[in-house]
Design brief:
By secondary structure, the chain is α/β, with parallel strands linked by helices. The chain has a single domain, classed as Ribonuclease E inhibitor RraA/RraA-like (Glucose Oxidase, domain 1). It is built from four helices and twelve strands, in the order H-E-E-E-H-E-E-H-E-H-E-E-E-E-E-E. Strands 1, 2, 3, 4, 5, 6, 7, 8, 11 and 12 form a ten-stranded mixed sheet that branches. The protein has a two-stranded antiparallel ribbon with strand order 9-10. Strand 9 and strand 10 form a beta hairpin. The longest helix is centred in the middle third of the chain and has 9 residues.
Length: 161
Amino acid sequence: MTISFATTDLSDANADTIAHVDPIFGDYGGRLAFHGPITTLKVFEDNALVRTAVEGPGEGRVLIVDGGGSTRCALFGGNLAQLAAQNGWAGVIIFGCVRDRDELEAEQVGVKAIGHHPRKSIKKGLGDRDVSVTFAGVTFLPGAWAYADRDGIIVAPTSLA
């Protein structure tokens, strides 16, 4: 039996144990469907910790970036997408903006964000890693699992495999 990782199928089969992320995210990466254990960042208009995270081994994880919902600058772009793909990240979900859309689409990493903006962020290294973050109607905990595709994003406390 083949397991489907489609969010619709997972939603139907696990309705009582998963959380549905509000449908505010667009697809920007070269991979439209991705899943894996969650690592979190909480930053605001500063992407230095995002770079640090994707420079490290992804090991099939999904990086959840709580950027405070800011639409004043981008937290993720083509160079970081290239690093994320090279280092084995399954995907990045950003409660904030991205840039370099053509470069993002060229990389084999999932990228979801609330918008896009040409302005780069500051780089002071402020923020927190592997903390509980809440946005889009869901609390994301490090070690929980995110599943994303063109139909949306769901979060489960453990792997649904």
